[in-house]
Specification:
Chain lengths: 292, 716
């Protein structure tokens, strides 16, 4: 009891000291002076959090850095040179990326802190640290695409490539073209995992008519699609039906999919092709995160 | 109108204001020169005569300051007139009608010099010639520099807070030498130029009459004349209407003359003053400001008091009032006439009404003595006698004249030694009869300024340590900020600093300062953006913050006033925390803060509507504020209990007084507890001050700063 109390006090003193450190930090050097002042001006009144349009995501993803008022704290800690663990920085990176850029936080802040631009700045800084952020692979992360013109040439691609590298490190088949696969044993658990959502459990009715592959604009874009994309949509459906996890997750098609829903609409068997691709993507991300 | 007729007309050259200012300036300038010059050449034969005319050096100084005051007055009037001319009359700053030098003036000077040496025609002048402009600017800068340095010398105590000592030496040189230059310039250059020019000699009266004949105008200001002829309307306005002037004269005289016939009787005061003069015809009071007068006055008193058998009766007891001249000669006040301190002693009956230390000495600030000492007479502390008592009638602490039935001899003029704190122990000891705390407590310092009127001092360890920690926090914050980028990533800290400085000046001296003021009032003081979040939140916020701000403001204003008017008894009264309005306001504001802190904690405990994660910091800070307030009221209660204030003075402390009654119910010796309570209150405050830069409460300083910077930069 005594020990835990003193260690508590010690911890508290540590955080107190680290809230102000006479050492320059990588984050601090890259933010502007007014942004650093704004970090100090934050009163933690949580007005931003109560208006945040993605705060609801906190109920699904237990990452406190999704809430803007908490993000400020983490960024301040990082800027004051506090020794955050890699895990904490990774959480901040995710929190700062899970944002719709709706600017509500900036508008409601009583002190007038320009929070939105702070997120954008910190997001780019953290992304260029080289630690892959898998959320960039979401088709909803189009905001970075809109900002493409403002980023330095080459910088835009970098986080995307990093994320793909991270995934392919776990799903080996993305890189290998010639690999002899053992049909047995089949990963039954994998097949069961796909049953999680009601929409995406109907892949087994696929009879391989290739309608999905034929209408896919991504497939149509390439002279030799198999060489670039790996498995094509109907093959992925089939691999999923067979329970071949390596095959299904090892296709580049997953990450090049535009989610235009052409395949799903055209399928004569009513397979939710796009939804299945979605599930697979989420599975791959979860898998990669677990392995990390 | 024909040209010939035109020549007889007279036109306005200077308006009433111009002439008035010139006349006032002429009189005050001559006055300043005549009072000031004897000081520069004190050995000269005429200096003594002049000083005699002014009634001595003091009189000359007084007149000099009067004239200086008038000078500042008309200078301000002139600046106002310039503003009026530019804004209301839509006059132009540059151009032919202006005093601002233009290229033409230099050309005129060149041409004039050529003309003097017989080469070419004289120049054609506009409304103002180049030497007139030179005169104007000589006076303008003269007043600025001589006046400015004069102010420095007039109020050295005030300005020495801002400027180092050698500035006064420089000011002295500037004041005397530039004044000599100005005097020389006026008597040689200005008078010669104005009156001794050809065609003007013997005198140019236009600055007094304001008028100038058309003939002269054509000759001396041909360009202006041409300009007038181009604008007939303007010309008609400038024409002197003698009929109207006559009418005006009659009107004025009809108003002024009857007023001379009215005379009023003397007021009582004036009559007494007059009677005094009658007395003083024979009973001349010596001039106490002169050595001779002072010595005369002391000797007059000593005539009796140096006799060993002089005595008086106090409560039926005989007390010696013998004063040992040798002993008296060792005291600090030995060169002050007795009647200057012992007021009213020269009238009948022969007794001192009161000592008037504060006619020479200022009141103590909070730093030297606590405000409870406002109810202590000066001599109670400063006299070497160890016997004091509380006057039951007035409640003031005074010197006791009788101790245990034995009268005390009071005629020693030696003062108590305050270098050691032993002198304080004549009141501050256990079971004293005057209600003083047992321990001698330090004065309120810088850290108390938020809520109390205190002095800018740091004398006790609590203040020093907390302020040191506070400064470390500020330093770390600045370090934290300055690692950020600004404008260009390559900026060094020094470049950042100079950039900030440059921008700050640009904003302060631009119209944006009004926007900043508006933002300060609306967003910082009235917290508009917090109100937008919700009335409840705003109420809690304002309940804590506004009272502290108002208490700080009262303290700051009083500190400023007591620095400006150290002799003022009114300021001293306001500084007294028992002064009913102040006591009431302080208690009321304190109550508001407690309510706010309680409401804030309740809100947190009830669970907020937002998904905020309340940190431990919040409770620490709110708890500190609440505890400071509670201990504050507790200490106030103990203080009121000890000092046993009369009900009329205690009641305005509508929280402290009930607390004191409550405390009185407990059989505890509160006077022993009081110092501890006081120190707990001080240490809590010190903790808050030291913790401030490390806590989120730092936003009370930084948020306004950020809001103002954003407003200054012009961001929405």
């Amino acid at each position: 009891m005594n020990v835990s109390l003193s260690s508590k006090v010690l911890h508290w003193c540590k955080t107190l000291i680290h809230s102000r450190r006479f050492s320059k930090s990588w984050m601090g050097k890259n933010l502007s002076m007014i942004q650093l002042m704004e970090l100090d001006a934050c009163t933690h009144c949580a007005m931003c959090t109560s208006h945040c349009s993605v705060a609801i995501a906190f109920e699904g993803i237990p990452n406190i850095n999704i809430l803007p008022s908490e993000k400020v704290g983490s960024i301040k800690a990082l800027a004051s040179g506090s020794p955050l663990t890699e895990q904490e920085i990774r959480e901040l990176q995710e929190g700062v990326y899970l944002c719709t850029n709706c600017y509500r936080c900036t508008v409601v802040c009583p002190v007038g802190i320009d929070l939105q631009n702070l997120w954008i700045k910190v997001r780019e800084l953290l992304l260029h640290r080289g630690v892959p952020e898998l959320s960039v692979l979401s088709p909803l992360s189009y905001y970075r695409g809109l900002m493409k013109g403002e980023t330095v040439a080459g910088d835009y691609e970098e986080p995307l490539t990093q994320a793909r590298e991270a995934i392919s490190a776990q799903c080996g088949l993305m890189k290998k073209k010639d690999e002899v696969l053992h049909l047995i044993p089949v990963d039954e658990k994998f097949k069961g995992g796909l049953d999680l959502s009601a929409q995406a459990k109907n892949f087994s009715v696929c009879f391989g008519c290739q309608t999905c592959t034929t209408v896919c604009p991504v497939v149509g874009h390439y002279e030799n699609p198999q060489e670039v994309l790996g498995l094509l949509p109907h093959q992925i459906m089939h691999a999923a039906g067979l329970g071949l996890r390596d095959l299904a997750l090892g296709s580049n098609m997953l990450w090049d999919c535009l989610t235009c829903y052409q395949c799903q609409e055209q399928c004569p068997r009513g397979v939710s092709v796009t939804d299945v691709l979605y599930e697979l993507k989420n599975l791959a991300v979860r898998y990669t995160k677990e392995k990390r | 109108m024909s040209v010939k007729e035109d020549h007889k007309e007279v036109y306005w050259r200077f308006n009433v204001f111009h002439r008035f200012i010139h006349l006032v300036m002429m009189i005050t300038f001559l006055g300043l020169a005549l009072t000031g010059l004897p000081l520069k050449y004190p050995e000269a034969f005429w200096a003594q005569g002049l000083i005699f005319l002014w009634g001595g050096v003091k009189g000359a100084g007084l007149f000099h300051r009067w004239f200086a005051g008038i000078t500042f007055g008309y200078f301000a009037l002139h600046l106002l007139y310039v503003a009026y001319y530019l804004i209301v009359l839509k006059g132009k700053l540059m151009g032919p009608l202006s005093m601002v030098p233009s290229r033409k003036d230099f050309q005129d000077l060149y041409q004039h010099l050529r003309y003097f040496s017989g080469k070419g025609a004289p120049p054609q002048f506009g409304r103002f010639t180049y030497w007139e402009k030179f005169d104007y600017w000589a006076v303008f800068w003269g007043i600025t520099f001589i006046g400015g340095s004069g102010l420095l010398l007039w109020f050295p105590e005030f300005f020495s807070r801002f400027f180092p000592g050698f500035w006064f030496n420089i000011a002295y040189t500037i004041h005397s030498d530039e004044a000599l230059l100005a005097t020389g310039f006026i008597f040689v250059v200005h008078l010669f130029n104005a009156h001794l020019r050809a065609n003007v000699f013997p005198m140019d009266k236009s600055i007094f009459t304001g008028q100038m004949e058309a003939k002269k105008m054509m000759e001396h200001h041909p360009l202006e004349w041409e300009d007038l002829n181009r604008h007939p309307g303007e010309k008609e306005k400038r024409r002197v209407r003698k009929d109207l002037l006559f009418l005006l004269l009659i009107l004025v005289l009809s108003g002024v003359l009857p007023s001379f016939s009215y005379s009023r009787g003397l007021t009582d005061e004036e009559r007494m003053e007059a009677e005094k003069k009658i007395c003083l015809r024979c009973h001349r009071q010596p001039n106490l400001n002169s050595n001779e007068g002072m010595a005369t006055a002391i000797l007059f008193c000593m005539d009796c008091h140096e006799k060993k058998d002089v005595e008086k009766k106090v409560d039926g007891k005989t007390v010696s009032v013998y004063i040992d001249p040798k002993e008296y000669g060792k005291t600090v006040h030995r060169r002050i006439a007795c009647i200057q301190c012992h007021e009213g002693v020269a009238s009948s009956p022969h007794r001192t009404h009161r000592f008037s230390c504060v006619s020479c000495h200022g009141y103590h600030g909070e730093g030297t003595a606590h405000d409870p000492h406002r109810s202590v007479n000066c001599e109670a502390c400063h006299h070497e006698s160890k016997e004091v008592k509380k006057d039951p009638k007035t409640g003031r602490i005074v010197l006791a004249k009788i101790k245990e039935g034995v009268p005390l001899k009071m005629t020693s003029h030696r003062l108590a030694d305050f270098k050691n704190k032993e002198a304080c122990k004549k009141c501050h000891f256990p079971e004293n009869q005057v209600g003083a705390p047992i321990r001698v407590l330090p004065a309120k310092s810088l850290i108390c300024m938020g809520c109390h009127s205190s002095s800018v001092t740091l004398n006790d360890p609590v203040s020093i340590v907390s302020i040191l920690l506070f400064l470390i926090g500020i330093g770390a914050t600045l370090f934290f900020w300055f690692q950020g980028t600004m404008v260009e990533p390559s900026f060094t800290a020094r470049e950042k600093l100079s950039y900030i400085g440059e921008k700050a000046w640009q904003v302060i001296f631009s119209r944006r300062i009004w926007t900043l003021l508006k933002v300060f009032v609306v967003d910082v003081l009235l917290l508009r953006s917090v109100l937008k979040e919700g009335v409840g939140r705003w109420t809690i916020h304002s309940l804590i913050y506004l009272p502290i701000f108002i208490r700080f403001l009262i303290g700051a204003i009083l500190l400023f006033l007591s620095a400006l008017f150290p002799m003022s008894s009114k300021v001293a009264m306001l500084l007294d925390k028992n002064f009913p309005p102040i006591a009431f306001i302080y208690d009321f504001l304190g109550l508001c803060i407690i309510l706010g802190a309680v409401a804030a904690i309740m809100r947190r405990l009830q669970g907020k509507t937002q998904k905020a994660v309340t940190g431990r910091q919040d409770y620490v800070v709110l708890g500190l504020i609440g505890a400071i307030l509670l201990t504050g009221f507790w200490v106030e209660g103990m203080r009121i209990l000890q000092t046993a204030l009369p009900l009329s003075e205690a009641l305005p402390s509508f929280i402290g007084y009930p607390i004191s009654l409550l405390l009185g119910l407990f059989p505890i010796r509160w006077e022993v507890v009081y110092p501890f309570g006081w120190y707990i209150h001080a240490i809590l405050t010190g903790a808050l001050v030291a913790y401030l830069p490390f806590s989120k409460m730092f936003h009370i300083l930084i948020s306004p700063l950020v809001v103002l910077i954003k407003a200054a930069v012009g961001e929405k």
